[in-house]
Amino acid sequence: MTLWSASEAEAATGGSSTIEWQASGVSIDTRTLRRGDLFVALKAARDGHDFVAQALEAGAAAALVERVPEGVGADAPLLIVDDVQTALEALGVASRARSRAKVVAVTGSVGKTSTKEMLRKVLGGQGRTHAAEASYNNHWGVPLTLARMPRDTEFAVIEIGMNHPGEIAPLSRMARPHVAVVTIVAPAHLAAFESLEGIAREKAAIVEGLEPNGVAIVNGDLDTSGILIDAARKKGAKVVTFGEKRSNHHRVSDLRIGDQATVVQGRAWRTPVLYKISVPGRHFAVNAMAVVAVAGALGLDRATALADLGRWTPGAGRGMREVIAMDAVETQMTFELIDDAYNANPASMAAALEVLAAAEVHHDLGRVSKGRRIAYLGDMKELGQSEAELHAALAGQTAMKAIDVVHCVGPLMKNLYEALPTEKRGRWSETSAQMSEAVRHDLDAGDVVLVKASLSMGLGRVVDVIRKMRQGAGLTDA
Fold this sequence. Notes:
Elements: E1 4-5, H1 6-13, E2 16-17, E3 22-23, E4 25-27, E5 37-40, H2 52-57, E6 62-65, E7 78-80, H3 84-98, E8 102-107, H4 112-124, E9 129-131, H5 141-147, E10 155-159, H6 168-175, E11 179-182, H7 196-204, E12 215-219, H8 225-234, E13 238-243, E14 250-257, E15 262-268, E16 271-277, H9 282-297, H10 302-309, E17 320-325, E18 334-340, H11 346-358, E19 373-378, H12 387-392, E20 405-409, H13 413-419, E21 425-429, H14 432-436, H15 439-442, E22 448-452, H16 460-467
Parallel strand pairs: 4-5, 5-6, 6-7, 8-10, 8-11, 9-10, 11-12, 12-13, 13-14, 18-22, 19-20, 19-22, 20-21
Antiparallel strand pairs: 1-3, 2-7, 14-15, 15-16, 17-18
Catalytic activity: D-alanyl-D-alanine + UDP-N-acetyl-alpha-D-muramoyl-L-alanyl-gamma-D-glutamyl-meso-2,6-diaminopimelate + ATP = UDP-N-acetyl-alpha-D-muramoyl-L-alanyl-gamma-D-glutamyl-meso-2,6-diaminopimeloyl-D-alanyl-D-alanine + ADP + phosphate + H(+)
Enzyme class: ligase
EC number: 6.3.2.10
């Protein structure tokens, strides 16, 4: 199916094509480019113009460029524009304008991506659904997601993020959602904002792009909920609150976190609801109530939506759980990994610790007779002047009482290390590479291990070492 023809892309961007072409997709990366894609030569970490020849050799239908790149012939299929980023945004706007899809936009300090993926699952059960890949939620990720939207899309889910003030509103206006969701406002990116209230005002800007008669679904449990609600009402949106307080329109009334799932009872306005998600976690379960609210706002079949919620599982680096079999013969010799190494701030860290605390360990399996709950925690970034205190405060989390050992990575996590009771302290290291060296000595059959940090801390390296412990690959005495 043709996604973009040369003439359509020219009309959208104001550019000119060297020859006629038709593209079935849009790509910004030659490593994932598919034959028939329009390659967009963005200038990011590296100049995409340097990869145009490679993209065309790999089967790109055309390339969106500002000039004819070196090594590319004059007869190559190129769409030449004044500015590639601006042209990508124009493609996104044009794609949204021609679409009849019902669009849901999601933002929040914690849970944007997992909520987007829940929505992908639920909406996908009731119509042709398009959603952002990974965390494509910034100034190029949102227009790229829109530009990739198939013509016959019935539902679209757009994730919108921010690092600095003024970023969300333009992206929301580009997406023009019918429903806007704010999962939570929490200390994250405080280095760029004066206060939590400043973060809330930026998150509330997601309503700026709402279509007429749009719906704003916002967390009603927060100290800053009033800021979100006021912004939505000022925009003329219908406001639906969700959370655990009785005052919420959609509320969780009972939540039971098990070892492998969370079961929720609640009310969707006046209607009782019961659902399960196949992962433990209060934050997942509460955000799932926002998904229930979206289903209601879009007039979807609620029973089907609740059933599909139960089929959703988080992706790698976002709380995904897996069993690591340490011996191919002694199949009981296993431990469990909770891979949450993609992102971290105080709210998501507290939620992850609660999941670890609820995890079931197994005794009398390995060299250490007692199964343990073990955490590898790395620095939480962009927390501003209070960063040291916010790291140290994790020691006071109720969930910490059920956690046996905490290993800390990074200069900020040294504050937590020093605040922990001596008996819970594992090791502290400056880097993930240093921590990785002794991971095999830390773990044994029956344990449950959590790995969580901001992405820049590189704790994916620790996760990789843990995964390589499968089937006795170098097990040593603990």
